[in-house]
């Protein structure tokens, strides 16, 4: 007797992410099979040109003639996104006609829940330049339903990281940090815990230490100022119940300079900022579960001192590892999530987790720009 295996079809989607760290654009191609297996097929990263980064930062902080600048920056960003699409297609040998859609998060310049959120991308231009359907503007539908519009990655985390025999916490550390709680049994949870790399990066730039603290070495050279740490952790955001989300509008260099840091050595401030990120993440994890695998992704996954701090504060009941241990390189998780959210839009399936964002219910996310 001959057994015929079911035919498995594969669709390709592109995902693009440029986050609050403003380090550039991550572009990926993922393969999604008809039996819901997800595989990273190709990836590329393009740094922001210095002038574009300055313009995005100006929009984040508030500047004159914002409408004009925002429109021009949207077009510049879309051309950079298109370059990412072109390069990842070239590197994989996949033709644009084989891509079902691009899921592009766009560049957040203002996130003010419950009032509004702004991610810059010209979806029509990106579709025109790539000749591929584009799905973007993912956050606004969730916010229209009363949600925070963020974080949006937990639904994808559930698809790729859920374990049935133990609790899993996924910690994405970009400019901001967010966690996804994937219990072995029960409902998915998640929210922004507070600053991820954003304060550490800003402090590095202020003191001419580069754009980021590579592997946390500068922080490692200093000592945590416990008094300052306690003052930082006293910020009302850390006491807010979920659902909650935050951004550069709240946690920024100006926020930091309101604290008594003038007489503290710069390296000690950096060490304290690293501890702030770790402590604010751990506080929330321990309120969710007493034992779990803690999977780290995002740029913070490459900061060895930060991972060491997380492990030390969490203790032996928690196993901290980078997402590569679960099969996905930490750098590409978010871009993969928006590729997957692009598929959800085309299939008319919900992309949010309402228990996470606080929306009234499951919603189809994103606006479609046909090629």
Outline the structure in words:
The protein has 371 residues and is an alpha/beta fold. It has helices at residues 50-61, 66-92, 123-130, 139-144, 154-161, 198-206, 217-221, 226-233, 253-256, 266-288, 304-314, 333-346, 354-357, and strands at 10-18, 25-33, 38-46, 99-112, 116-120, 134-136, 168-173, 176-182, 189-195, 292-297, 318-322, 367-369. The chain folds into 2 domains: 10-149 and 331-369, ATPase, nucleotide binding domain (Nucleotidyltransferase, domain 5, 2-Layer Sandwich), CATH 3.30.420; 154-330, 2-Layer Sandwich (Nucleotidyltransferase, domain 5), CATH 3.30.420.40. It has 13 helices and 12 strands. Strands 1, 2, 3, 4, 5, 6 and 12 form a 7-stranded mixed beta sheet that branches. It has a 5-stranded mixed beta sheet with strand order 9-8-7-10-11, with helices on both faces. A hairpin with a 4-residue loop joins strand 2 and strand 3. It is globular, with a radius of gyration of 20 Å.
Q: Can you lay out the helices and strands and say which pair or pack?
A:
Layout: E1 10-18, E2 25-33, E3 38-46, H1 50-61, H2 66-92, E4 99-112, E5 116-120, H3 123-130, E6 134-136, H4 139-144, H5 154-161, E7 168-173, E8 176-182, E9 189-195, H6 198-206, H7 217-221, H8 226-233, H9 253-256, H10 266-288, E10 292-297, H11 304-314, E11 318-322, H12 333-346, H13 354-357, E12 367-369
Parallel strand pairs: 1-4, 4-6, 7-10, 10-11
Antiparallel strand pairs: 1-2, 2-3, 4-5, 6-12, 7-8, 8-9
Helix pairs in contact: 1-2, 2-3, 6-10, 8-10, 10-11
